Amino acid sequence: MAAVHEEVPFSEFLHRPGAAAERLNEVRTLRLRRRDADDLALVRADQVEREAVVVDFTARLLAGLVRSGAVEAVRRVLEEALPWVTFLPESDVDELLSELITVAQGAASLENLSPIATLLGQWRHTAEIYSDPALLEIINREPEGDLGVVDPPEERQ
What we know:
Elements: E1 5-9, H1 10-15, H2 17-23, E2 29-33, E3 40-43, H3 45-67, H4 71-81, H5 90-110, H6 114-131, H7 133-140
Parallel strand pairs: 1-2
Antiparallel strand pairs: 2-3
Helix pairs in contact: 3-5, 5-6, 6-7
C-alpha cells in the first residue's frame, strides 16, 4: 500500500462507486468529502474487524496490567500517551485509569470506539481546567445568590 488514506469527493464516489471501491486495494481508507455535511469514511469490513481485535486486546492487556499490580508502570506510560494527564491531581489520574479500563473493555465488546473517545475528551477538558488557575478558580467558586427551585428527579421504572 502506497498511502494509508485518500480523499475523494462524495460526488465522484456516487458517479463511480466501483472505482472508489477498487481504490481500497491500494489505500486503507477513503475519505469521502462532502460540502454540506461531515465527511464519510469508506473502509473494508475486514479492516474494521482487525481493528476491533486490536482494541479488544489492548483493553484486556491494560486491565490485566493493572490487576497484576503494575499500576505505577501503567501510570508512567499513561503520561507519555496522554501528556495532559500531568495537570490532573493524583486521585483523578487513578479515576481516569479505572474509567478507561472499564470503558475500553465495554467499547471493545460493542465494537464501538466512540465511548473511549468521549471519555478521553472529557478528561482532557478536566485537565485543561486544572492547567489554568483562572478557570479552576471560576469552576470552584461558590455560586452567588439563590439559584431557584430544583424539581426532584423523576423516578425510574
